[in-house]
Specification:
DNA synthesis, ATP-binding, Rossmann fold, binds adenosine-5'-diphosphate, Thymidine kinase, EC 2.7.1.21, 2 domains, alpha/beta, 11 strands, 6-stranded parallel beta sheet, binds the ligand Cc1cn([C@H]2C[C@H](O)[C@@H](COP(=O)(O)O)O2)c(=O)[nH]c1=O, thymidine kinase activity
Length: 223
C-alpha cells in the first residue's frame, strides 16, 4: 500500500538531507521518483541540504496541480513510483489534498518534508493539512537544540538581531551563524518553547548575562 508520509522538525533538523537520502535509497533500488520543492534557499527548482548536497527539483508554484502533473506523466508513458516533496509547509492545502489523491488512487508513495509552525508559532496551512491527511507523521530524530541545551521546538525570526513576531509569513532565510560578526538583516534561530515565549535568543541571553554580571567592586578603579 502506498503511503503519504510527513517528516517534520524545526529548521536545521535535517529534513532536506533526509529528503535527498530517501530519494537516493529508492533510486538505487530501481524505483523512479520525482522531486519537488518551493522557495529553497539555494534558488528555484533546487532541493538543497546544509550538508552540501543538492538535487534538481520541480518548483511548486501556486497554481501547480500534483494530480494533473502525475496523470499527464503516466498517460505520456512515464513511470512514477514515488514523490519527494520538500518545503511542503509552503504548499497550498489543496495541493496536499492532490498528493493524498495521488497516493490513494495511483498507489504512488509521497514523502513530504517541512516545518510545522512559522515564526509566530502558528501552523503553516500546508503542514496543518499534512498532519490531517498523512498516514504517518514522523518527527525528525536528530534534535536541533536551543542555546540552553533543551530540544528546540520552535523557529524564531530575527531582524537585525532582534526577535520579531510580526511580518510576512514567507521570508526565505537561514539559521544565524553564531560566529558571524554582524547579525543578518533577516535570520532564524531555533529555540525551546520557553525561550521563544520570552523572546530570549542566544544573543539576548548573552547580553542579559553580561548586564547582570556583578561589577568588580573589590578592584580599585584604575588598576
Ligand atoms: N558543518 C556541519 N557538520 C555536520 N553537520 C552539519 C553541519 N552543518 C549542518 N549540519 C547538520 O545538517 C542538518 C541540517 O540539514 P538540512 O537538511 O539542511 O536541515 P533542514 O532541511 O531541516 O533545515 C542538521 O542536522 C545539522 O546538524
Ligand atoms: C519559520 C519560518 C521559516 N520560513 C522559511 C525560512 C527557510 O527558507 C524555510 C525553512 O527551511 P528549512 O530547510 O526548514 O531550514 O522557511 C518562513 O518563510 N517563514 C517562517 O515563519
Amino acid at each position: 500500500m502506498a503511503e503519504l508520509q510527513f517528516f517534520t522538525g524545526t529548521m536545521d533538523s535535517g529534513k532536506s538531507t533526509l529528503a535527498l537520502q530517501t530519494n537516493h535509497n529508492h533510486h538505487v533500488r530501481g524505483r523512479i521518483g520525482r522531486i519537488f520543492t518551493t522557495h529553497d534557499r539555494a534558488g528555484a527548482a533546487t532541493l538543497s541540504s546544509r550538508l552540501g548536497l543538492t538535487h534538481d527539483a520541480i518548483e511548486v508554484g501556486g497554481g501547480f496541480d500534483f494530480w494533473r502533473y502525475v496523470v499527464d506523466q503516466l498517460t505520456g508513458g512515464a513511470r512514477i513510483d514515488y514523490l519527494v516533496c520538500d518545503e511542503a509547509q509552503f504548499y497550498e492545502p489543496s495541493q496536499i489534498d492532490q498528493l493524498a489523491r495521488v497516493v490513494d488512487e495511483l498507489q504512488i508513495d509521497v514523502f513530504a518534508f517541512g516545518i510545522l509552525t512559522d515564526f509566530r508559532t502558528v501552523l503553516f496551512p500546508g503542514s496543518a493539512r499534512l498532519v490531517e491527511l498523512a498516514d504517518r507523521t514522523n518527527v525528525l530524530q536528530v534534535e536541533a537544540l536551543c542555546w540552553c541545551g533543551r530540544r528546540a521546538t520552535h523557529n524564531a525570526r530575527t531582524e537585525n538581531g532582534e526577535m520579531v513576531t510580526e511580518g510576512e509569513v514567507i521570508v526565505v532565510g537561514d539559521v544565524e551563524d553564531p560566529s558571524a560578526q554582524q547579525p543578518p538583516e533577516v535570520g532564524y534561530e531555533v529555540l525551546c518553547r520557553q525561550h521563544h515565549r520570552r523572546r530570549m535568543t542566544a544573543a539576548r541571553a548573552r547580553a542579559v548575562s553580561l548586564v547582570s554580571e556583578p561589577l568588580p567592586f573589590d578592584q580599585p578603579f584604575g588598576e
